[in-house]
Amino acid sequence: MSSFRKRSADPLRGTRPAGDGGFTLIETLISTFILTIGxxxxxxxxxxxxxxxxxxxxxxxxxxxxxxxxxxLMKLDFDTAPAVAVGGNLAADVANYSETPLDGIxxxxxxxxxxxxxxxxxxxxxxxxxxxxxxxxxxxDVATIIREW
Length: 149
Hints:
By secondary structure, the protein is of the alpha+beta class. The chain is built from 1 helix and 7 strands, in the order E-E-H-E-E-E-E-E.
């Protein structure tokens, strides 16, 4: 048995031993470049995904705050609580019809008389949450009918 390897002729690489496989510098640079492009694309998607998650979290917070305010107002007596008396404004802060529970978030509500011809113990309640922390959809409105029990 001979310890010599057969040499194959390769015009680009010259002669090399048969079976000596490897990558050239050009092949390594090209594959590194392709891998880098893929990683940059993934990093861009990560940034977009993070922004979308923040937006969804703020939208959920706005909806939760509006629902909490509705639940709070539903418990009040129509005759004695000024917060459920007919009035309020969704466009401006009005005493007894607005509050700021967190920095950058304002709650405003409008109370209107219930449907006519029905009981006088119903009111139409619209709560608006203005969330300056959100990047999009900064305003959330939730409306419902409340009834005095």
